[in-house]
Structure formats: structure tokens, C-alpha cells
Specification:
The protein is mainly beta. It has one helix at residues 53-61, and strands at 27-34, 40-44, 50-51, 87-92. β1 and β2 (40-44) form a beta hairpin. The chain starts with 26 loop residues before the first strand and ends in an 11-residue tail after the last strand. Bound molecules: zinc ion.
């Protein structure tokens, strides 16, 4: 899915957003939700814009909540620190393109 908003554009050399982690970012973190009768809505998670592959795996392993369920509440160890409804999703950094930019 195309994200509606990119808070922190991916640049080469971007590290993981977990404090103290120096691993390269592997994925862009998105906060995704779906309203009744609507389409999927997703924007970059400004509270944790990037994760390395190890922290992505840990983020899902330690998730408390149903995951990809519309209007759901999920708690993650690293992402969605603002506690918004919806779920975390991940896109490869190589595919991250700022909104509005031509290919
Ligand atoms: Zn990391």
C-alpha cells in the first residue's frame, strides 16, 4: 500500500529507530487502520519510523493485541508509542518513496 504520509524519508545509511540500536534500518514502519466501509489507511509511524530486521521480529513477537484487525488496539514494544488504533505494518526500505515524488 502507498502510505499517506512519510514523516521521515528513508535515506541510505538510516539506522534502526530503537534507542541504542546501530543496525541499519530494514523496514519503514507504518501505522495502518481501516474504517468501516473505507479503504486501508496507512502512514509512517512517526514514533518509530524505522526498524532493523531483528527489532521488527521482536516487535511482532511481543505484540499484545489481535494484529491486523480494523479499529483494534495493539500494544508493541517499539512501535505506535502514541497508542493509536490500528496495527503496525512494515515495508522494505528499498521501496520507501516519499509521497508526491515522481518515480
Ligand atoms: Zn534495531
Amino acid at each position: 500500500m502507498k502510505l499517506q504520509r512519510i514523516a521521515v524519508p528513508y535515506l541510505a545509511g538510516q539506522p534502526c529507530s530503537v534507542p541504542g540500536c546501530t543496525a541499519p534500518a530494514g523496514v519503514v514502519v507504518a501505522l495502518v487502520d481501516k474504517y468501516p466501509g473505507g479503504e486501508l489507511f496507512g502512514e509512517q509511524d512517526f514514533t518509530c519510523p524505522f526498524l532493523c530486521h531483528r527489532h521488527r521480529a521482536e516487535n511482532e513477537r511481543r505484540r499484545i493485541g489481535p494484529g491486523a484487525v480494523p479499529r483494534s488496539d495493539n500494544q508493541y514494544p517499539f512501535t505506535n508509542r502514541a497508542g493509536a488504533q490500528g496495527w503496525s505494518a512494515y515495508q522494505p526500505c528499498s521501496a520507501a518513496t516519499p509521497v508526491g515524488r515522481r518515480p
